[in-house]
């Protein structure tokens, strides 16, 4: 018997309707109806101006796109200083204190007016391989070469290439995780997406212990696992022995471990964990790969986040040569490859001294912003359940707030009225192909993701907006 939740304007008991700490307010019902309309659009005919678009299917928008579109309807513009965008998953660009100088002009020799190879230029692939060898594979028996690298025009392009190469396999993914995985996992019919909820026993703010994952992989015969590490949205990070254990699972069971490592530079450790060398701490599964050409570990990263250059759309996939050959071939019909001029311009950015100085400045700058936001939000009883060690996101628990703003959907819409954008938690409760129909009532309903990627002045504008929403609902400021 199919279970469906009936949403009406009549007063009903919370538990009977939601089975969740969510509210029974009429405003929440309207918000939930909007959510259902978005995610059930694939069940309706795709129309434009009343005419059916023959042969096309409806596609869902990611949470960032949907919420930003709602903000634009209310007057949002990225150049408007009265707005704060806590929603966009991008770091501030431009100069920050202590960082090396960044390219301001890109020289384009005639040879770079031609197409670049689909797998990327040889020089850049060598530079990327050297980056991993220098930072993560000192003293290892095998090292990455250009054959282990494929350059791609953005992280999602890399993930799409990888997914297109997987044949007739169950692919595990964690809940919550990066919103774009939902469409990447649902696009190819040869993939069976398998959700792996982070157990309430350990909390969403910690990655699943390796022994639990090992049992899941073996029992379900998973062919691959897709995950972000550090994790978007929670800021949790696998490192050291825990990360080594995940790589061992991939090696033992032949399960491809697809690691989205875009936030690998955003790591904030205690002083007693820092390296004696003064080098910045970073994280990558590359450190625990035994054989670069046999361990089924694929690393996806790029200039987008770690180098704070999202507009360059220059990223890469690193892994065994046999996998990289397939991923490169997929690019010939999916995206055609990354642009040539920026591949040439990226070479100095991967040099060891540049990376060292850039990451040290980045970590100091973003740690200060994280600590500022945690301190301000604590005044309004808004906080993560665990202080994030990585990324530039806060996975915030609203359960201590009063009805109705203890719900992520409602908080998000109320904050839009105050010129600020956040992403409600249900967007990270991934549902490839719309198979999971009741994410709106799941464990992410009382959470929001807040990005402290924007500049400090914009963060301060956003804090004032959050304060107005909280005061409107009677939340007293705690000192």
From TrEMBL:
Its cofactor is pyridoxal 5'-phosphate. One of its GO terms (biological process) is amino acid metabolic process. Keywords: Aminotransferase, Pyridoxal phosphate, Transferase. It holds the Pfam family Aminotran_1_2. Residues 82-103 are annotated as: Disordered. It comes from the Eukaryota. SUPFAM superfamilies: PLP-dependent transferases. One of its GO terms (molecular function) is transaminase activity. Residues 107-466 form the Aminotransferase class I/classII large domain. Belongs to the class-I pyridoxal-phosphate-dependent aminotransferase family. PANTHER family: ASPARTATE AMINOTRANSFERASE (PTHR46383). This is Aminotransferase class I/classII large domain-containing protein.
């Amino acid at each position: 018997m199919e279970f469906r939740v009936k949403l009406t304007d009549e007063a009903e008991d919370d538990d009977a309707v939601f089975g969740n700490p969510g509210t029974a307010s009429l405003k929440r019902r309207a918000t939930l109806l909007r959510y259902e309309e978005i995610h059930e659009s694939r069940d309706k005919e795709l129309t434009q101006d009343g005419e059916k678009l023959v042969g096309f299917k409806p596609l869902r928008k990611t949470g960032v796109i949907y919420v930003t579109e709602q903000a634009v309807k209310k007057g949002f513009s990225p150049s408007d200083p009265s707005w704060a965008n806590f929603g966009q998953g991008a770091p501030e660009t431009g100069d920050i204190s202590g960082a090396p100088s960044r390219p301001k002009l890109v020289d384009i020799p005639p040879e770079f007016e031609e197409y670049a190879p689909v797998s990327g230029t040889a020089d850049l692939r060598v530079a990327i391989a050297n980056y991993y060898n220098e930072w993560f594979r000192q003293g290892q028996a095998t090292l990455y070469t250009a054959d282990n690298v494929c350059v791609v025009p953005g992280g999602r392009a890399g993930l799409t290439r990888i997914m297109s190469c997987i044949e007739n396999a169950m692919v595990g993914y964690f809940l919550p995780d990066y919103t774009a995985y939902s469409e990447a996992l649902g696009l190819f019919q040869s993939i069976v997406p398998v959700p792996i909820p982070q157990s309430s026993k350990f909390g969403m703010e910690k990655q699943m212990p390796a022994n639990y994952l090992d049992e899941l992989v073996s029992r379900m015969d998973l062919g691959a696992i897709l995950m972000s590490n550090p994790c978007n949205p929670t800021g949790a990070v696998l490192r050291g022995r825990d990360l080594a254990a995940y790589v061992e699972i991939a090696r033992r069971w032949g399960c491809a471990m697809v690691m989205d490592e875009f936030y690998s530079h955003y790591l904030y450790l205690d002083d007693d964990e820092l390296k004696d060398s003064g080098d910045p701490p970073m994280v990558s599964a590359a450190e625990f790969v035994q054989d670069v050409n046999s361990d089924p570990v694929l690393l996806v990263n790029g200039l987008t986040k770690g180098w704070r250059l999202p507009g360059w759309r220059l990223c890469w996939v690193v892994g065994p040569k046999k996998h990289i050959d397939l991923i490169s071939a997929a690019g010939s019909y999916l995206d055609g490859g990354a642009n040539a001029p920026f591949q040439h311009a990226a070479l100095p950015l991967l040099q060891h001294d540049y990376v060292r100085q850039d990451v040290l400045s980045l970590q100091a700058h973003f740690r200060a912003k994280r600590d500022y936001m945690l301190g301000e939000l604590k005044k309004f009883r808004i906080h993560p359940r665990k202080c994030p060690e990585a990324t530039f996101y806060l996975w915030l628990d609203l359960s201590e707030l009063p009805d109705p703003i203890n719900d992520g959907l409602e908080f998000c819409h109320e904050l839009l009225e105050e010129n600020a954008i956040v992403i409600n938690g249900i967007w990270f409760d991934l549902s490839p192909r719309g198979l999971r129909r009741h994410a709106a009532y799941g464990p992410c309903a009382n959470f929001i993701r807040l990005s402290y990627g924007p500049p400090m002045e914009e963060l301060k504008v956003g804090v004032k907006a959050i304060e107005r929403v909280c005061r409107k609902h009677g939340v007293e400021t705690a000192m």
